[in-house]
Design goal:
The complex is a heterodimer of chains A (166) and B (119). With 166 residues, chain A is mainly α. Chain A contains 6 helices and no strands. The longest helix of chain A has 26 residues. The chains are: A mainly alpha (166), B alpha+beta (119). At the A-B interface, α5 and α6 of A face α1 of B.
Chain lengths: 166, 119
């Protein structure tokens, strides 16, 4: 890991943090509880496609920790939800990317869906109530849409930023 | 947008609809009548069995009758007889509460569990 790469990853982590915090201000959460559009996934996808899987893990996990830390929510419920969703989502994204059969849209949709599944599983575990999973069908359906949108955004970003050197 | 992507999206849609069905069918049919006196369980009967039962409340005997999958308090000692006038209950949403006798008649489902607590 060169210094240059470390600095680039740090910038990406910062961008992810900003996107995650900004997203928490959007009022979409009141329509369906627990739904996130997942802007921070753009950063994860960009890192995955421009660098490698390990960089994506570094940026992703770092972003989850730092965003919670900066909001004062470290080790709170929302942190564990974010971490559970993030771990599952990053695993699936790195898995699907490694098979090579999925385009960025598929990886993004899978990441969004697994983020929702991870969050619902964490909520079910924390509150010990099986019926928290009633959120799952709606969240899954919405995550397909949001995954596609984020995939389009990330695709555009990758295509345009490849010509820019830091 | 490869073929595998489309397969994945269809798979997620199927999972989304498929997980809806067992979750919605999970409602256990409430089927037991439980009578509590002073918060202790004194009578537990099946809702489908007709019968008349007597329970000792604080002010006297409370008669509970089960008929046609409905429960009713038919006779008890109290100043206003509110719980007798309440009529019959047939599901778990409302209990019959007789405060002078400290008696509660509830319909509960088969698995004796706590009510869910939402924080």
């Amino acid at each position: 890991m060169t210094t240059r790469k470390a600095v680039e990853l740090a910038f990406l982590m910062a961008a992810g943090i900003v996107l995650q915090i900004m997203e928490s201000f959007l009022p979409v959460v009141f329509i369906v509880p627990g739904f996130k559009i997942g802007f921070a996934n753009i950063i994860a996808l960009y890192t995955l496609y421009n660098y490698d899987t390990r960089s994506m893990w570094i940026v992703g996990i770092g972003r989850i920790f730092m965003a919670s830390l900066l909001q004062g929510l470290l080790f709170s419920v929302s942190f564990w939800l974010s971490l559970a969703g993030g771990l599952l989502s990053l695993s699936i994204m790195s898995l699907l990317h490694r098979t090579g059969k999925f385009s960025i849209y598929g990886v993004s949709v899978a990441g969004a869906a697994c983020h929702s599944i991870g969050q619902v599983a964490a909520v079910t575990f924390i509150y010990q109530q099986f019926f928290m999973q009633l959120y799952l069908p709606v969240l899954l359906a919405l995550s397909i849409v949001s995954g596609l949108c984020i995939g389009i955004l990330a695709g555009q970003l990758i295509r345009r930023l490849r010509r820019v050197t830091l | 947008m490869t073929k595998a992507d489309k397969l994945l999206i269809i798979l997620i849609m199927i999972c989304s609809i498929g997980s809806l069905i067992p979750l919605l069918r999970h409602n256990p049919l409430p089927s037991q009548v439980v009578v509590y006196v002073k918060n202790q369980e004194v009578l537990r009967q099946d809702l489908s069995q007709n019968g008349t039962y007597h329970v000792e409340g604080t002010l006297g005997t409370v008669t509970v009758e089960i008929k046609d999958r409905k429960v009713q308090v038919t006779q008890e000692n109290s100043p206003y007889h509110i719980c007798s006038k309440q009529g019959a209950i047939s599901d778990a949403s409302t209990p019959i509460v007789c405060l002078p006798n400290e008696t509660i008649v509830k319909i509960e489902s088969d698995d004796v569990g706590e009510d869910t607590v939402i924080q």
